């Protein structure tokens, strides 16, 4: 009825107003608006072979750089500190150092506290997607319009080579079973978010000899699901990870893959793989100015 249409129109307007202020989703915004990542999510519920758990999640972060972990109360304090000094601050994101949804109570509480203090702030979060079917409705209810999910493949055999295990509902799954559970939840969760007006960005880690040839298929499937943009990223072998001796994917290879996939979906080319506690304009990191606690891990 008319009522629903009205709501949909205003939802769409608010999403596009928010996107115009989001440096990662809008080319124009990325030189004008600043973001801060709040490292309130230390745990993860899966194990990617490219991850070294001492470091930040590759969902949004360059492996090998480290950050402090904050409680929701500290996150709120830090937000106030940063907001005062960084005028262009428009976006607060939860991007690790583990998975935003594996720490959902802390992620949610941090967002609620900041939202109460600053209703204009745009929130985003990034996740491996395992818990999306459980929390996507709450994400929508919280008014989060920008979510990033890392989807590396659609094929469980390929997934079995990428994921060492998945912790799900009290069980530790491995092999194709782990991959199947993760993939199913990712697809279901992404579909739900898109249907509810959330702009979904997909990160894909390009791993030579593992998923590289399969990436165009992944991008086509994401298009079908209504995803907004894909962000193909290079594998940067992290010391101590299972893939530590894998070849690094060059930016040329990534850039060629983006060009090949552009026919399906817009390709993000300005993602900087920021740290889980990054602060400032994209390409700028002022996190060292705003530390509350010593970093959890030192390189
Ligand atoms: Fe590491 Fe993967 Fe978990 Fe991110 S999702 S913290 S890369 S295991
Ligand atoms: Fe934006 Fe990429 Fe940095 Fe996230 S990691 S804040 S998407 S530039």
UniProtKB/TrEMBL annotation:
Top-level taxon in the UniProt lineage: Bacteria
GO molecular function: 4 iron, 4 sulfur cluster binding; lyase activity; metal ion binding
Pathway listed: Cofactor biosynthesis; Fe-Mo cofactor biosynthesis
Requisite cofactors: [4Fe-4S] cluster
GO biological process: molybdopterin cofactor biosynthetic process
UniProtKB keywords: 4Fe-4S, Iron, Iron-sulfur, Lyase, Metal-binding, Nitrogen fixation, S-adenosyl-L-methionine
Domain Radical SAM core stretches: 30-275
Similarity section: Belongs to the radical SAM superfamily. NifB family.
Role of this protein: Involved in the biosynthesis of the iron-molybdenum cofactor (FeMo-co or M-cluster) found in the dinitrogenase enzyme of the nitrogenase complex in nitrogen-fixing microorganisms. NifB catalyzes the crucial step of radical SAM-dependent carbide insertion that occurs concomitant with the insertion of a 9th sulfur and the rearrangement/coupling of two [4Fe-4S] clusters into a [8Fe-9S-C] cluster, the precursor to the M-cluster.
The protein's name: FeMo cofactor biosynthesis protein NifB
Organism: Dendrosporobacter quercicolus
Full-sequence portion shown in this chain: 4 to 302 of 428
């Amino acid at each position: 009825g008319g009522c629903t249409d009205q709501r949909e129109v205003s939802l769409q307007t608010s999403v596009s107003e928010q996107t115009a202020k989001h440096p990662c989703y809008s080319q124009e915004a990325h030189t004008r608006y600043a973001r801060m990542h709040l490292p309130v999510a230390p745990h993860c519920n899966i194990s990617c072979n490219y991850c070294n758990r001492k470091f930040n999640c590759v969902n949004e972060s360059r492996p090998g750089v480290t950050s402090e972990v904050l409680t929701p109360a500290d996150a709120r304090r830090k937000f106030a500190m940063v907001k005062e000094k960084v005028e262009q601050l428009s976006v607060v994101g939860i991007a690790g150092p583990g998975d935003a949804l594996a720490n959902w109570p802390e992620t949610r509480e941090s967002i609620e506290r900041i939202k109460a203090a600053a209703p204009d702030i745009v929130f985003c979060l990034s996740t491996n997607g395992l818990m999306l079917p459980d929390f996507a409705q709450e994400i929508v209810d919280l008014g989060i319009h920008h979510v990033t999910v890392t989807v590396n493949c659609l094929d469980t055999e390929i997934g079995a080579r990428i994921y060492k295990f998945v912790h799900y509902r009290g069980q530790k799954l491995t092999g194709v079973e782990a991959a199947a559970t993760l993939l199913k939840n990712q697809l279901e969760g992404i579909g739900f978010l898109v249907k509810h007006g959330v702009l979904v960005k997909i990160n894909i880690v390009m791993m030579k000899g593992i998923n590289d040839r399969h990436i165009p298929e992944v991008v086509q499937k994401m298009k079908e699901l209504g995803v907004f943009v894909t962000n193909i990223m290079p594998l940067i072998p992290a010391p101590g990870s299972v893939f530590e001796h894998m070849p690094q994917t060059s930016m040329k290879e990534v850039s060629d893959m983006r060009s090949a996939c552009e026919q399906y979906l817009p390709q993000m080319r300005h993602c900087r793989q920021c740290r889980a506690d990054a602060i400032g304009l994209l390409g700028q990191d002022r996190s060292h100015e705003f530390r509350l606690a010593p970093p959890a891990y030192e390189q």
